[in-house]
Specification:
4 copies of one chain form a homotetramer. Chain A is mainly alpha-helical. In chain A, 81% of the residues lie in helices and 0% in strands. Chains in contact: A-B, A-C, A-D, B-C, B-D, C-D.
Chain lengths: 102, 102, 102, 102
């Protein structure tokens, strides 16, 4: 895809914020590695694992929202039925992966 | 807790394998950062986010299994009812966090 | 809303199939009641509970898909930005409830 | 299994409460059928579907908790290692089904 189309990806407007969030998540994963290294209590490790999945789910929903409001909105508004059907299929597959209902 | 009690944590026996898995997950998160940096397609980013949550869920279940087979088993076998009740409460709270059914 | 607008709800086209699926789910729940009544083994009951949630998740995704392809598609194609923003907000809230990421 | 063993299933003590909860869930499913029949708004139907899965998850966790505190506790306390291993395997499989991390 061209740079111009790239510019329409919803999340790009808040790229820095997303990278910061991912950076924090990366740090959280590194923290869990340290906990395992230091042989910390299983339940405390599990609490951290759940915190990371929650952070990732929330980040995923943010990107999904931006996707709906940009790519999906654009495809549906374009009048190009095939493009709209494709975006809709992709969106629903993403939601399925999210909800682990494959 | 003493080092001796630490040694009973189920996951400790496979510490290296767990750290390797966490290290791979850390790399996956860094990969997502790069995808956002390079303004890759939203759906491809979401696919990677789902892959990381799946990897974390699977790691969490591994640690939970080790926990049941060591700490919980030990508490129930000890005859110490209070310790057993405490382990059971902790376990169920961990499962709740896991299933996001708080 | 008018009957005419109702007619645009995506799922209405397959109303009978959906009602049949819900009817089967209702029967499954009644089956679990019977299992509890007969004091069946906990794990067997839990397996049935999971089967019902899976069936409901799958039904929900079906309705969500129909919703995207009808109501959301329609709002985005209408050029009415407020209607589109409203549909998008609703859709994302539904996905959040689905993924229990409130 | 004998009636005597049945009596040890944790949930049996609150059988009536569980059946009442299941009965309410059954009613909720029937309510969704009616909503589809009356061609109600997709998002309102989805909200009800999510309410039912949440109710089922919560019921499942209740039964799981009772199971841990009775069957699993009993097996671990019995000193029968094979029985304990079997209960542990079953428990973790149930948690996996719950978290859809099969």
């Amino acid at each position: 895809m061209s740079q111009i189309e790239h510019a329409t990806y919803g999340y790009v407007r808040e790229k820095e914020a997303l990278i910061n969030r991912l950076h924090r998540i990366e740090g959280q994963v590194r923290g869990i590695e340290r906990m395992v290294e230091e042989e910390r209590y299983c339940i405390d490790i599990l609490t951290q694992v759940s915190a990371v999945t929650t952070a990732l789910d929330s980040l995923g929903l943010k990107i999904l929202g931006d996707h709906v409001n940009s790519c999906v909105a654009h495809a549906f508004a374009s009048g190009d039925e095939e493009a709209a059907a494709e975006k809709s299929r992709e969106l629903l597959a993403a939601v399925e992966r999210f909800t682990k209902t494959r």
